[in-house]
Amino acid sequence: MKTATFKIEGMHCEGCAETIKTLLERESGVRMAEVSFKEGAARILYDPNTITEDALARLVERPGYRVLEQH
């Protein structure tokens, strides 16, 4: 398991954070996702043999949010 941390732009409320969390946690290979509207960030525990960090970033960006930084 690996952890990815993303700085995210475009969240306007806790509902946005919940949307991103749901999208991530539905994806195969994602064990857990914590998304904070207040911090503008997401922390994702995932299996790198199943999904890549870039694929996770694309999931976050699909509904219109923007990943500013990946760690």
Description:
The protein has 71 residues and is α+β, with helices and mostly antiparallel strands. It has one domain: Alpha-Beta Plaits (2-Layer Sandwich). 31% of the residues lie in helices and 37% in strands. The protein is built from two helices and four strands, in the order E-H-E-E-H-E. The protein has a four-stranded antiparallel sheet.
Give the CA-based shape.
globular
Question: What is the annotated CATH architecture?
Answer: 2-Layer Sandwich
Structural class: alpha+beta
Helix content: 25-40%
Detail the poorly predicted runs. none
Give, in spatial order, the strands making up the sheet with the most strands. Answer: 2-3-1-4
What's the mean pLDDT score? Answer: 96
Kindly state the number of beta strands. Answer: 4
Order of helices and strands: EHEEHE
Report the end-to-end length measured between terminal Cα atoms. Answer: 15 Å
CATH C-level class is Alpha Beta
Rg result: 11 Å
Brief description of this entry?
This protein is of the alpha+beta class and 71 residues long.
Key terms:
71 residues; alpha+beta; Alpha-Beta Plaits; 4-stranded antiparallel sheet; 37% strand; globular
Layout of helices and strands:
Blueprint: E1 2-9, H1 14-26, E2 30-36, E3 41-46, H2 53-61, E4 66-70
Antiparallel strand pairs: 1-3, 1-4, 2-3
